[in-house]
Amino acid sequence: MKVTVIGTGYVGLTTGICLAYIGHEVICADTNESKIRQLRDGDVPIYEFGLPEMLAACGERIRFTAECREAAGAADIVILAVGTPAKAEGAPELAYLYAAMETVLDGIAEKAAPTLIVNKSTVPVGTGDKLAAMAASRGISERVEIASNPEFLRQGSAVPDTLYPERIVAGGSPAAQAALRALYGPLLRQDFSPPAFAPRPTGLASVPFYAVDLKSAELGKYAANAFLAMKISFINEMANLCDRVGADVSAIAGMLGSDSRIGKAFLQAGIGYGGSCFPKDTKALHHIAGTSGYDFKLLSAVIEVNRFQKYVLVGKLRSALGTLAGRRVTILGLTFKPETDDMREAPSLSIIEALLAEGANVIAHDPVGLRAAKALLPAEAGTTLNLDEALQDADAAVLVTEWPVYLNYGGRTYRERMKRPIFVDGRNALPAADRSWLDYYGVGMRAVPSAALST
Ligand code: UDX
């Protein structure tokens, strides 16, 4: 099939490349010309595991262009994958989506053959109907089908998540659902050769396909993200309670997760969720509910818990050090999670701001995200690419992002580098054997005083 993807962000680019990989003829279009030039040179502008290798494997089946209108006119299926960032009041900004839709309609205006326009951007319920109305206002609705096809990929594992999805959701008319079933056929049947770096999970023979109406698909995407965010806020509240009563949240997460009705995933307590989806989508769903006249109380609590959780570490640090004023604090990790360079809604930014406000001298390290972070960090925050230098003479270290380099550094090495071995682990991720070298503080677990210091 001939597919055009509008938008070359995480979702658009990964989708375009994976669709080309499984055999479709794909054009990725974006108004950002420098991005397009980079992609034409075979250079992937985002840090995403395996994506450059996948692109190289696609050969002639994928092209890149800044001519979005022409690209839309050349396709059987146009996928809209543009950003829907949150506006101040939490509502998603749909201006980019509507602008992209106008361009697509311009591109297909003279085309005789039908076009399926698939929205992959996360949007409020009813947006698909608005897209259909836009086509109708041009008098071409009989040649246009609108579908909603929400995306569930995670950054850092976007390629395997796309090749081996746990479900594919197709919202729209029976004809739109059938076209999406054909588009994703090779994924549904798992009928393609897996790339060497992302082998097919054992036992995966086929992928479930949910054919639903447009509105349910739109709302379902928010429901999935809000539910996962709720799990995280729940375990974070349990962790805060554990801190007060002296229980261990990891033990509780284990007990909870082994109940198959609950599941193990997303019960890792820490500093709260960040990234491009959970913060934005929880606020958007709350706003959507509000505008429909419904007060989604549970979601308000999820959002509030997450806002508070970022500062739990700061309190732990303050009590461990007595005061933060004049103390040198090393921030280990800036990106919202490992294996990405994405700084969107990264909790590190709020944590650093709070530390600086209390007079701490902050020095931050990240193996991948420093470039993106520098534009967002306050000028007073120091940064370095050298981990040893970041830790040198530190009064305390705070693990914010669980990059392997921090987990493999070794308790003893931390202790030797730092002035004082105070280690606040915002992810409960440091290996147990390393903790006894340090004055170790996790989230929702008893503090471990360093063995050497207490003797
Ligand atoms: C998420 C969804 O998982 C994905 O399905 C959707 O398409 C986009 O949003 P992503 O934002 O890439 O993906 O990251 P994810 O791995 O889900 O983590 C989100 C945030 O939650 C991160 O800040 C992570 O550190 C945090 N998290 C996750 C926890 O604090 N605890 C957990 O147990 C899991």
TrEMBL record:
EC number, as in UniProt: 1.1.1.22
GO molecular function, one term: NAD binding
Keyword annotations: NAD, Oxidoreductase
Lineage: Bacteria, Bacillati, Bacillota, Bacilli, Bacillales
Residues the record lists as binding substrate: 221, 266-270, 274, 337
GO terms for biological process, alphabetical: polysaccharide biosynthetic process
Active site residues according to the UniProt entry: 277 (nucleophile)
Coiled-coil residues: none
Reaction catalysis annotation: UDP-alpha-D-glucose + 2 NAD(+) + H2O = UDP-alpha-D-glucuronate + 2 NADH + 3 H(+)
Family stated for the protein in its record: Belongs to the UDP-glucose/GDP-mannose dehydrogenase family.
Top EC class, one word: oxidoreductase
Sites where the protein binds NAD(+): 30, 35, 84, 122, 280, 344
Ranges of residues in domain UDP-glucose/GDP-mannose dehydrogenase C-terminal: 330-432
Designated name of the protein: UDP-glucose 6-dehydrogenase
Pfam families: UDPG_MGDP_dh (PF00984), UDPG_MGDP_dh_C (PF03720), UDPG_MGDP_dh_N (PF03721)
Pathway note: Nucleotide-sugar biosynthesis; UDP-alpha-D-glucuronate biosynthesis; UDP-alpha-D-glucuronate from UDP-alpha-D-glucose: step 1/1
